Amino acid sequence: MNKVFLILLSFLSLSLSAQDDLLDMLEAEVAEEAGPEKVIATFKGIKLINAQTIETTKKNTLEFRITHRFGDMDVFNKQNLGLGKHTLYGLENASNIRFSFDYGVTDKLSIGVGRSKMNEHIDGNLKFRFLEQKSGGIPISAAYYVSAALSAVATIPNNEFANRMSYVHQLIIASKITRGISLELLPTIVHRNYVDQTILNPDNGSVDENDLYALGFAGRFKVSKRMAFVVDYFLTFSEYRNDATGYYDALSVGIEIETGGHVFHINVSNSGGIIENDFIPSTESDWGNGGYRLGFNISRVFSF
User: Fold this and answer.
1) Across-strand partners of 116?
2) In this predicted model, which residue has the larger pLDDT, 60 or 11?
């Protein structure tokens, strides 16, 4: 009886193994016929810290976002050692706040509006994802981002309305390298209709430019199921912008926490500006001189 039982058990094991192998072969054939799968969730939100991401707001979905920047922490300020403690390391100073709404027209096209404290900017934007990364296929995703901003407090000659306007054109190129690493490259142009060209750079005699070219770098590095390390940096190509004129490249680092319907970022950045129209031309704080500030981004999604 024991021998018969062992023979039956061995036959059953072989049968189940053969069925599993057959199912694996069938699934592989179906996957091959279906073609490469679209890579999803390259990033968890439509923005990282300063950088736009490849993600767009889903169709018929409204995303409400609050972005907050405090004042300079001044922890290691070379000129004013210990200054930070008098402002609770910047927490008593709100340098910038932005409220924004983004709506998904389609899964690949979203539109948005926002209001920033800095320069009292009112901005409108559009993002269109025209290329999607696929496993075993296209290794990158790409999107086009454009925005226009109106400054209510800009100091301009003759109060000309057109000179209050600035524009951004940006190409977003992203790739989800692994399940835990996502990277981006962001070639960017910022055009300001009016700039003050009466101030010369003492190093080279250059003046400010209407058109600024920048190259952004961004990354998300997953730490756990709901937490990731995030960073973005924008290199601005300008003869006028350097230490002599007090302008610096925007560098931000932070932690991303996902909590169900919320994506929450705690970050440290040397930029007071939140939109490209502000942080690319107007970052005036230096990381090396205590010029970095605490901030946070939080978003909430509503489906219709």
Assistant:
1) 98
2) 60
pLDDT at 47 over 70: yes
The Cα–Cα gap between 180 and 229 comes to: 10
Q: Write down the architecture of domain 38-303 according to CATH.
A: Beta Barrel (2.40)
Residue 267 dihedral angles phi and psi, to the nearest 5°: -140, 165
* DSSP letter string, 248-267: --EEEEEEEEEETTEEEEEE
Read off the amino acid at residue 58.
Answer: K
Residue type for position 49: I
**What does the alpha-carbon distance between residue 289 and residue 33 come to, in Å, rounded to a whole number?**
58
Q: What is the pLDDT of residue 77?
A: 54
Element (H, E) at 152: none
- SS3 at position 300: strand
Within 8 A by CB and 6+ apart from 239, the residues are: 201, 204, 206
